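Worked example (supplementary).
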Amino acid sequence: MNRKVSAITTEIFPSDMRTSLGRNLTYGMLDVIGRSIVIGEYDNVAFPTEAELARQHGVSRAVTREAVKMLTAKGLLSARPRQGTIVQPQSSWNLFDSDVLHWLLERKFSVELLRHFNQLRVAIEPEAAALAAMQATDAERAAIGAGLARMVAAEAGADNTLAADIAFHVAVLEGSRNPFYKQFREMVASALATSIHFTNRIKGRTASIEDHRAVYDAILARDSDSARCAMRRLISDVLILIGEAEVTAKP
Amino acid sequence: MNRKVSAITTEIFPSDMRTSLGRNLTYGMLDVIGRSIVIGEYDNVAFPTEAELARQHGVSRAVTREAVKMLTAKGLLSARPRQGTIVQPQSSWNLFDSDVLHWLLERKFSVELLRHFNQLRVAIEPEAAALAAMQATDAERAAIGAGLARMVAAEAGADNTLAADIAFHVAVLEGSRNPFYKQFREMVASALATSIHFTNRIKGRTASIEDHRAVYDAILARDSDSARCAMRRLISDVLILIGEAEVTAKP
DNA sequence: GTTCCTATATTTATCATATCTATCTGACTT
DNA sequence: AAGTCAGATAGATATGATAAATATAGGAAC
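After joint prediction of all chains, the assembly is encoded as:
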């Protein structure tokens, strides 16, 4: 399943956005160690020294140090002479970093993570829709419309449902004309990619095209309040589904 | 003014959270180059090669590569053999990285940036307050109350107004019990640190303790809707002030 | 003239080794 | 008990050599 998610997100986003493909030794090592840390492999054991890491992975210390430095930049590690390299608490991880996000999703698929994602989406996306309604350019409005059109096409089997859904939501974020909102593209894409498989399993959720159209119409009409409400309804539905799933999954 | 902001944020957050103090050559270089990129120093000129960078800064290639790798991890650079190292478009910068955030604020103080900050806050914080109302622990609720108490004390000159304000808002984020929301501590702190000086200049904005108390009371009463509204009101006020400032600043 | 291939130069990537610097530990001094 | 010093440890830095990737130009084939 992770493979599939990864395949779809790379369809949406150019591969350049993923820094950590096994392009070379440094990035390969970054990926391996990053994943290990996120899994929790070093939770109760001391993190190896630089020299030991290099030996374990069969690479030079230079490569090791570069990988460690990148993980430090992402908030997973910190290094000091004599003290050694230590794993940072999860609270200081850069959760909006695409690598960290991918490692988290690969780790173990948890409903809790999905809920956290969508608790964030329900804050971000309605407001993004409201901003888009007020200040999106014509081209950006057109992109949102194109996303909706793709969803309609997907309904008829002429497009990928997930990709279309992502395209719509990303277009709304872009329409906000706020660089901070745009940062959430990856997160929203990941959330949708994981939740679509999940919610389909819970309930035969028909892709709610009408709800999406309501958002689009409000944005087109420059009605920011309606846009906010429509988007909020859309994501609240997902949150409710997740909540139900958690309750039924407990016993 | 940047110095002051930095001093206050380091009062709030332990220095460990700031990765890029001039602790050593690598971090010093990271800071210098990162700032240069954000300023736009390389916008129309080719970024130097690894060897050239090392020469310019008087350090070894190893140090240079480590600094470049960290900037790559933060989304500011990308490097490929033969092509060289190139500055990435701003859209791929990791805006929630604390270093990037600091460089952005140091750059030039722009009202636009402040507006973008608060457009994000108006999405995040009301929802965080709503979540906190529903699921914050007793200790977390107490922390929010402590933040409010500090604001009251600051009113009487017994505490720092800004630090108290930040403590309150950060406590609400912590109360959300969602790791993604907690990531915004730095952003909110930076936004408050810059906006407090700014809004004071625009208007004799008395620290709106009553508005903050309304948020706290709602959270304590586990009334998520009221908490959301109260927090939204709080931040909307700031957004309006910024909007007015932009209009008057235009001509 | 256009397309395709290939040689070459350039730049990052990697390795190996030596040395420096920070800092924890414990012994020694006062 | 407090302060000082020496040793040990782990990251930090420097250097020089080599490998791998790839943009570009020049030439071959059509």
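Two points are worth noting when inspecting this output. Chain B is about 70% helix and 5% strand. Residues 6 and 102 of chain B are 8 Å apart (CA to CA).
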